[in-house]
Amino acid sequence: MKILLMGNPNVGKSVIFSRLTGVRVTVSNYPGTTISYTRGFMKLGEETAEVIDVPGTYTLEPSSEAEEIALRMLDDGDIVINVVNAINLERNLYLTLQLLERGIPVVVALNLWDDTRHRGIHIDLDKLRELLGVPVTPTVAVTGEGIKELAESIPLATSPGTPVRSRDERWAAVGSIIDRVQRITHRHHRWFERLEDASVKPLTGGIIALGVLAGAFFLIRFIGEGLIGYVLDPLFNYLWAPVVLKLSSLMGGGGFLHDVVVGKVIGGEINFVESFGLLSSGLYVPFAMVLPYIISFYLVLGLLEDTGYLPRLAVLMDTVMHRLGLHGYAIIPTLLGLGCNVPAVLATRILESKRERLIAATLISIAVPCAALQAMIFGLVGQHGGQYVAIVYGTLFVVWVILGVILNHVVRGFSPELLIEIPPYRLPPWRTVLQKLWMRTYGFLAEAVPIILGAVVVINILYFFGVFDAIANFTAPVVSGLLGLPREAVTALVVGFLRKDVALGMLAPLALSAKQLVVGSVVLAMFFPCIATFVVLLRELGVVNMVKAAGIMIAAALITGGMLNLVL
Amino acid sequence: MTLAQVQSGQSGVVIQIQGGRGVVRRLNALGIVPGKRITKISSMLMRGPVTVEVDRVRIAIGFGMVGKIMVEVI
User: Does A200 touch chain B (CB under 8 A)?
Assistant: First the structure.
């Protein structure tokens, strides 16, 4: 049996899904967190039923890719758990009626039930059950209240034979149900609400946005640097380095196998960045350079997501984003891209048109460096001074803007207007924040670390057989002539296809000047997406658009790198 | 008048949405239908989006669509 969890965006479907199945999924406080479906299983008496967390949809007439997915899922579901926002029964019931008209058995979960009390909303549950003709269970998914009762109501799901209506008739039907079940009493504004409104007004909103973004940046730096300086660097330098040195002398201090496992011993020491063995750089780069920033970035992003601030940032950025052929909501995939480009490209599904998705995905994969690459930029470029890091970021930002403006003029079609629901502010539930942080960190460890280790082995083998020398000779005119980098730097660009963090690490032994590191970082960020992003881009954009995007990337990277080389 | 001409803080009732089927459908989906009471919360500078409250929910609407929503101020 297939049970579908359906409802408007941001009503808590994913939280209920987690509660019912025990499967952990990403939940946030903004519409469109779930862009694909997740499956899980739950016990239903003796039977095991499949439960599917469907992306949110306002109606069964889709207007984005995520909503189309929701509609397709409906065809092979047996029962729908319709999650309804108790704060906004009017709009939510429209979808409920559409579902009932489809003749599929439905149970209703009236979520966010706790919020109705202090908002002065009174709902007559018995009357609502009678008028809809299906079980209705009040729930508070975040605390788990009502989940047991909801599960018990699933076998009672029925299809009451609601007549099929036109859109106007359906809205009228919703209105008459509301008149009979809902009563609103007066209440005072919460100070949260004043803050909510201040953040979408031009002046106060701008000030709040600057404060939030600056605060987020410093918090990420503070936590990231703290973890590196006080935890991971000491761990590697005082505990791990002696072990690796010991192993090095056991393996004879040199030779091919030694270099793959331990790396090159430089001046009698292990240099964790430059040695490039499995046990030196292969562990140090992912765990001591990148992981701390993954943790700090995703902690702060999780807090921003769960408070409900991000859609407000979308409102503030809307006018600017329109110049780039996007609307304000594209800021959410863009911010996700600062963590990892893969979920960011997937998240472009919340945008309505193919054109917007092409522009957003291209801009993200060219000009939005992922956390792994940024950590390496901070680690390597930052050694020469903060101003060089600022040049890297400034350049990427300018590229993002200019390229967006160009794409907006060149790509045919038009971009739809912004139209989004802005969720109320909520205090982030710590459980959710930490669980999400763990899922994302674990995702990095499980997916990135094996590739990093593999890349280290491949790099050593390619060096050993002199493959890189051949490539370096071949590409010297571009790499040295145009970009002003030593010709060996091409190895980093090649490896950038596997992992950009490792690739930037490969520039470390080349003794580059600060200027060369800046050029190298920018070109590496823009040149070509890593393999994981490449696969997702190919799937989401299709071959033709992917080829276009790739052409733009290579051209933009070479032009920008060449210009930086001339200007700096 | 259109929603664009309404002052921030003022309330009105939606009379009509003057737009193509796509626009009407998207606005309807968010509960903005004729007869609905709507309050303008704020508008961004330079033809930026307008934030409104409908049924205790805040919705941001792009400027182009705002001009298509006809409202009678109350």
Answer: yes
Chain A touched by B49 (CB under 8 Å) = yes
Range name among A36-50, A89-103, B7-21 with the lowest pLDDT average: A36-50
- Answer whether A520's CB lies under 8 Å from A512's CB: yes
Residues 6+ apart with CB under 8 A from A374: A293, A338
Helix (H) or strand (E) holding B71: strand B69-73
Instruction: Name the strands in the sheet holding B69-73, side by side, starting at the edge strand that comes first in the sequence.
Output: A419-422, B57-61, B50-54, B37-43, B11-17, B69-73
User: A229 or A28: which carries more pLDDT confidence?
Assistant: A229
Residue entry with tokens 């080389």:
A565
Chain B environment of A416 (Cβ under 8 Å):
62
Could you give the percent of chain A with pLDDT greater than 70?
99
Residues from chain B that touch A424, judged by Cβ atoms under 8 A, are 58
- Using DSSP's 3-state secondary structure scheme, residue A283 falls into helix
* Pairwise CB contact (< 8 Å): A63 & B22: yes
Q: Domain limits of chain B?
A: 3-73
Q: Tell me the chain B residues in contact with residue A94 when contact means C-beta distances shorter than 8 Å.
A: 29, 31
Residue partners of B32: CB distance under 8 A and separation at least 6: B14, B17, B38, B52, B54, B59, B61, B69
Question: Rounded distance, CA A127 to CA A106, Å?
Answer: 17
Residues B42, A202: C-beta atoms closer than 8 Å: yes
ipTM of the assembly?
0.95
Subunit contact B48:A202, Cβ cutoff 8 A: yes
Is residue A213 a contact partner of residue A316, using CB atoms and an 8 Å limit?
Answer: no
Q: Tell me: pLDDT of B74 over 90.
A: no
From chain B, the residues in CB contact with A63 under 8 A are 22, 25-26, 29
**Interface residue A418 vs chain B (CB under 8 A):** yes
Tens digit of each residue's pLDDT (9 = 90 or more) over A415-473: 788 999 999 998 888 888 999 999 999 999 998 899 999 999 988 998 888 888 888 88
CATH class assigned to B3-73: mainly beta
For the whole model, what pTM was predicted? 0.90
Distances (CA, A) of A479 to A462, A522, A562: 19, 13, 9
Q: How confident is the model at residue A189 (pLDDT cuts 50, 70, 90)?
A: low
Lookup: tokens for A22: 């025990």
Contacts of the segment A445-450: beta carbons below 8 A, 24+ positions apart? A445/A286, A445/A291, A447/A532, A448/A286, A448/A290, A448/A372, A448/A499, A448/A501, A449/A286, A449/A287
Locate the chain B residue with the closest alpha carbon to A59: B29
- Burial letters for A171-182: b for 16+ Cβ neighbours within 10 Å, e otherwise? bebbeebbeebb
**Closest CB to B42 among A58, A121, A201:** A201
How many residue pairs from chains A and B have C-beta atoms closer than 8 A? 104
Closest CA relative to residue A353, chosen from A141, A63, A125, A130: A63
Domain residue ranges in chain A: 2-184, 203-567
- CB-based contact, A193 to chain B, within 8 Å: no
Q: Could you count the other beta carbons within 10 Å of the beta carbon of residue A412?
A: 5
CATH architecture of A2-184: 3-Layer(aba) Sandwich (3.40)
Using a CB-CB cut-off of 8 Å, the residues of chain B touching A328 are 49, 60
Contacts of B54 in chain A (CB under 8 A): 91
